[in-house]
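G.,

No rush on this.
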Amino acid sequence: KELPELTFDIYGSGGEDSLLREIIANHQAEDYIQLKGHAELSQIYSQYEVYLTASTSEGFGLTLMEAIGSGLPLIGFDVPYGNQTFIEDGQNGYLIPSSSDHVEDQI
């Protein structure tokens, strides 16, 4: 509602697919949140303006490395794992506090 031009695509799949679909439906967000399933991401990155990682525990994110290699700015939580390896806050993206409820401010 605050950023009507924003779309959010989620690639991959896992055990939370049903829950995600339910949350999206309950919030009537089908028009701007899409579950895309598996794809060859190296061919997908060029279609986007920013890469957002919501992980707070991924040690080394291959997708982070691929996204930065594609030239996308990155947004991720400031946790002592993979994000700090790839994101130079204010340079190629933003590190946000892991307790932040304001991811949209960085976007």
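When you get to it, here's the other one too:
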Amino acid sequence: MLMKVCVSGDSTCIWYLGTQTRCESGGKSPALINSSLGATTVELVCDRQIQLRNTTGLHYRYAILNYDLMDKIAASATGAFGIAVALESGRFAVYRFSSSGGKQAVSTLEEAALRLYRKNNSPAPAANRDSLL
């Protein structure tokens, strides 16, 4: 599962890869991302164990450290893209995703996060005796 999570308190958005590949919190893993835009390496950092709805087994969440790259892929890539994660066994775990609808989904998420951030950080209106409270 690939997800972008925005924190309303500081308007930060982070890309995560959710997998069944076990990891230790804070552990780093190299990965390769391949899309219609090309291929490049990224670093993943194990965030924590997560519970996914309607699934069995343990899942883990990895932060994808190159947020700008993921935004670019979501906005501009065509077709499918893949993330290959190096495993301790010398093998790779490969995850494939469709970029269809990615640009619109990410744009909607970022707009909502920005609205919430502005709402939470705007000063309260000053009341005076003629104000309707």
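The mean pLDDT is 84. The longest strand covers residues 38-50.

Enjoy the weekend,
O.
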